[in-house]
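Lab notebook page, bench 4
Experiment: in silico fold of construct C2
Operator: M.H.
Input chain length: 89 residues
Purpose: comparison with the prior construct
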Amino acid sequence: MTERTIHNFNFSLENEKGQIVVKGEISGNSEVPSLDDLKFNAVIALLNSIDKKNFGEVEKAHLFEEYIKEIEETMKEITIHDEFQGEIR
């Protein structure tokens, strides 16, 4: 039996002023260089935890739409390019 190694990946997102917007760590198994499969699993898990109604309850439905647009634009770019570490805002 082969033992699977648990990998950790630390990430952060800064705004235009260099301030941290979000920071975190994901852990899990990976079979792909740069832990890209682990990153996808984390994104999917986070997306599955979001409820559109929460934005509407605080009159921020426009934020939901902005996030969806940014996700769609990012997905379009990463499927076009073999390497993509950029920001498309």
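Observations: The CA atoms of residues 14 and 89 lie 13 Å apart. Residues 61-80 form the longest helix (20 residues).
Next step: discuss at group meeting.
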